[in-house]
Automatic annotation (TrEMBL):
Stated name of the protein: XK-related protein
Pfam families noted in UniProt: XK-related
Record-annotated membrane-spanning stretches: 9-26, 46-69, 170-189, 209-230, 237-255, 267-285, 294-312, 324-345
Organism (species): Scophthalmus maximus
One Gene Ontology term from the biological process aspect of the record: phosphatidylserine exposure on apoptotic cell surface
Length: 421
C-alpha cells in the first residue's frame, strides 16, 4: 500500500487558526456578558453555576495544555523548533507555567499557531511540520473545551428558558447557534484526525455534511432531554450526572486508554472522556468499535427515554401545554433520525467508499472508518519531522479508526501466508 506523507500546512489551516482564536475570544466575551446579565438580574445561583462551568472548563483545558508542554519538552529539538512560540514552548518554564496559571495558555497556543502558520504559509519559511503539530493539539483542546463548557452551558440556557417559561427570539438563535457549533467542532476534530490516515481518503464536503448532521441530530435531543429533566427535578440533576459520569470513567478505565504520558494525565483524560460521553459518543480505545458504539447508544437512548418520561410526569400541564406533546414526540424521532444518518454515513458517504482502489484492495469491508497504525505513518524529511510527529493525536487516530485496521492487518497476514504457501 502506498503510504501517505505527513500533512503540509496550507492556507486553509491558517484560516482555521485565525477563526479559532476569534471564536475563542467571542465565546469568552459572550460568557462574561451572560454571566454579568445573570448577576445584574439578581440570579446569583445561575450566575455561580455559569462562572463555575467557565472556571472548570478553563482549568481542564489549561491542565491538558500544560501536560502536553511537559511531554513535548522531552522531544529532541522541540524547543529549538518552537520559533514564534518560544515563550510558550521554549525553555522559559516559569513564564509558561505562569501563563497557564493565569488561564492564558490556551490563548497563547492559538496566537503561536497563527504566527507560525503565517511564517510558513505567507513567508514560505520552514516549519510546516511544527505548524501542523500545533493545529492538531488545538483541535483536541477545542473539542475538550466544547464538551466541558459549551455543552453544559447550552443545557443551562435551555433549563433557564424552561424554568422561567420565557423565551425571546435571541435565545432560540443562541441555542441553535451553540448546538450547531458543538456539532461542527466534532466534525473539525474528525477532519483533523483523518490527516493521520496512511491512505489518501480525505473527507469531502458531502461526507462532512452528513457527519455534521448525524452529530447534530444526536447531540441536540440529548442536551434537550437533560435540560427538560433538570427543569422539573433540579435537585436530582447533579446525582444523575455524577452517576453516569462515574460509570463512564470506569468504562474508559476498563478500555485501557493510553492517550497521555503520565498516570495523572491519563486519569484526567478518562475523567474528561466521561464528561464527553455524557453528551456524545467518542471512541478512545483500540479494537472493534461497533459493539462499544451499540452499547453506548442503547444506554443513552434508554437514559434519555427515562429523562423524558420523568419530565412528562412531573411537568406543569398548564405551562407546558403548548409544547409538551411536540417535544415528547420530536426528541426521540430526532435521535432516531441521527442514528439513521450515522448509518447512512458509514454505508454511503464514508470517504473510504470513494477512495480509488489499491492494487490489492482485499475483500470489501463495511465497518466503520479506516485503518490507522502509527507505524504506517510516514513523514516527509524524516530526519527532522519524525521528531515532530504528534504521537498523541496519531495514537488517538489509531484508536478512533481502529476497527478496520485490525481487519486489514488480518487480511494482509492471511494474504502473506497464502503467498508463502
Amino acid at each position: 500500500m502506498e503510504r501517505r506523507a505527513f500533512s503540509k500546512y496550507s492556507w486553509i489551516d491558517f484560516v482555521f487558526s485565525v477563526i479559532g482564536v476569534c471564536t475563542f475570544l467571542v465565546d469568552w466575551g459572550s460568557d462574561v456578558w451572560v454571566a454579568a446579565e445573570f448577576y445584574c438580574r439578581g440570579d446569583l445561583f445561575w450566575f455561580a453555576v455559569l462562572v463555575g462551568l467557565m472556571a472548570l472548563s478553563s482549568v481542564v483545558v489549561q491542565t491538558f495544555s500544560w501536560f502536553w508542554l511537559e511531554y513535548d519538552r522531552e522531544l529532541p529539538g522541540f524547543g529549538a523548533r518552537s520559533g514564534a512560540g518560544a515563550v510558550l514552548f521554549g525553555d522559559r518554564v516559569a513564564l509558561s507555567c505562569l501563563l497557564h496559571v493565569l488561564q492564558l495558555g490556551f490563548l497563547c497556543r492559538h496566537i503561536s499557531a497563527i504566527r507560525q502558520g503565517f511564517r510558513v504559509w505567507w513567508r514560505k519559511e520552514e516549519g510546516s511540520e511544527y505548524a501542523v503539530y500545533l493545529t492538531h493539539d488545538l483541535s483536541m483542546l477545542r473539542l475538550i473545551e466544547t464538551f466541558c463548557e459549551s455543552a453544559p452551558q447550552l443545557t443551562l440556557m435551555i433549563y433557564v428558558m424552561l424554568r422561567t417559561n420565557k423565551a425571546r427570539t435571541v435565545q432560540f438563535v443562541s441555542i441553535a447557534a451553540s448546538t450547531t457549533s458543538i456539532a461542527w467542532m466534532v466534525v473539525d476534530y474528525h477532519r483533523s484526525l483523518r490527516s493521520f490516515l496512511p491512505d489518501k481518503a480525505k473527507q469531502g464536503w458531502g461526507s462532512s455534511l452528513i457527519y455534521f448532521l448525524w452529530n447534530l441530530l444526536l447531540i441536540a435531543p440529548r442536551v434537550a432531554a437533560v435540560a427538560l429533566f433538570a427543569s422539573v427535578l433540579p435537585g436530582y440533576m447533579p446525582a444523575h450526572f455524577l452517576m453516569l459520569w462515574f460509570v463512564f470513567v470506569l468504562w474508559a478505565w476498563r478500555q485501557r486508554t493510553y492517550f497521555m504520558d503520565s498516570v495523572g494525565g491519563e486519569w484526567l483524560y478518562r475523567a474528561t472522556v466521561g464528561l464527553i460521553w455524557y453528551f456524545s459518543w467518542f471512541n478512545v480505545a483500540e479494537g472493534r468499535t461497533r459493539g462499544r458504539s451499540l452499547i453506548y447508544h442503547s444506554f443513552i437512548t434508554a437514559d434519555a427515554l427515562i429523562l423524558l418520561a420523568t419530565w412528562w410526569c412531573y411537568r406543569d400541564p398548564v405551562q407546558t401545554e403548548s409544547y409538551a406533546l411536540a417535544l415528547i414526540i420530536t426528541l426521540p424521532l430526532t435521535y432516531l433520525l441521527g442514528l439513521l444518518f450515522k448509518t447512512l454515513y458509514y454505508c454511503c458517504f464514508h470517504p473510504k467508499l470513494w477512495r480509488p482502489l489499491a492494487r490489492d484492495p482485499g475483500p470489501p469491508v463495511d465497518l466503520p472508518d479506516a485503518e490507522v497504525s502509527v507505524r504506517d505513518i510516514s513523514i516527509q524529511d524524516s530526519a527532522l519531522s519524525s521528531q515532530l510527529l504528534n504521537r498523541r493525536m496519531a495514537c488517538h487516530a489509531k484508536n478512533f479508526y481502529s476497527e478496520q485496521s485490525a481487519i486489514r492487518q488480518t487480511d494482509d497476514a492471511n494474504r502473506a501466508e497464502s503467498a508463502r504457501l
